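Need residues for this backbone.
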């Protein structure tokens, strides 16, 4: 049996759900999970369905048969193989907490991805990556070689067949061109103090101001720095009795957790771009819930 999920985005109108459910049934498929959202503000409809093709229909066959229905409702749609792991390139600089967390989650099967390469502008995590049997690429970036460096990065992405690039505390700003070429395919993580505490040592700045909440935000990368559509966020409380070092430690924990949850949602095709925002459907049965991902 072929396990697949169908993702649909289209203008909202009457009859979409009935038409899709009818098609799934006609193809001899059984729906195991379904989520939908009708955005009344912009008139857009989003849907994700998990199903099993009990008659043995392939993803390619279902895609071809769905074409006429999709044209009728002006749908952007894709059938995805739920048994295949998404290929991911991870990029990191000198903060390794997110990278190490992702390596562990992949190793225990908590993330449905395959890390096909790690790219860094430093050598700090070369041994860690190689010990996990993952190719490591050192690509140093300067003002002078930035176009050439990004060309090498894109070459790694293309040669590995990666569907997603994860910036696991990669401390280089990507060019507008790369952001456009990889729109919806690059996920970033950063602390949620922006725009209040910019630059170096944001946690120490937060400590000096006596903040009571530390948070992290994971979002898609766009040409607008740290302003892409948000996928996942979380916070942790801090008190006056904790030190600046405690802030840093707690901040790293929440960053790693938030990034993992964002990747989990993207890899399960639960995230839809909706203008400057996202629609993120809850985890479906059989996948790790957000609680277990924390």
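Answer:
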């Amino acid at each position: 049996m072929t396990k697949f999920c169908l993702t649909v985005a289209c203008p909202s109108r009457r009859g979409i759900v009935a038409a899709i459910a009818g098609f799934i049934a006609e193809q001899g498929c059984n729906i195991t999970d379904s989520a939908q959202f009708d955005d009344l503000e912009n008139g857009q409809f989003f849907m994700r369905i998990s199903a099993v093709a009990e008659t043995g229909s392939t993803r390619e066959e279902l895609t071809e048969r769905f074409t006429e229905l999709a044209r009728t409702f002006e749908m952007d749609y894709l059938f995805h193989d739920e048994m295949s792991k998404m290929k991911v390139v991870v990029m990191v600089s000198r903060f390794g907490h997110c990278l190490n967390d992702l390596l562990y989650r992949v190793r225990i099967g908590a993330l449905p991805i395959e890390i096909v390469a790690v790219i860094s502008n430093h050598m700090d995590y070369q041994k860690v990556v190689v010990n996990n049997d993952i190719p490591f690429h050192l690509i140093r970036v300067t003002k002078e070689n930035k176009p050439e460096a990004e060309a090498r990065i894109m070459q790694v992405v293309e040669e590995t067949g990666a569907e997603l690039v994860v910036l696991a505390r990669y401390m280089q700003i990507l060019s507008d061109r790369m952001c456009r070429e990889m729109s919806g395919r690059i996920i970033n993580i950063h602390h949620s103090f922006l725009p209040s505490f910019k630059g170096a040592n944001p946690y120490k700045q937060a400590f000096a101001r006596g903040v009571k909440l530390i948070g992290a935000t994971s979002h898609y990368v766009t040409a607008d720095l740290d302003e892409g559509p948000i996928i996942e966020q979380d916070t942790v409380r801090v008190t006056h009795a904790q030190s600046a070092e405690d802030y840093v430690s707690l901040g790293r924990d929440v960053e790693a957790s938030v990034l993992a949850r964002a990747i989990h949602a993207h890899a399960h095709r639960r995230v839809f771009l909706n203008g400057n925002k996202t629609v993120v459907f809850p985890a479906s049965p059989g996948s790790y819930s957000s609680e277990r991902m924390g």
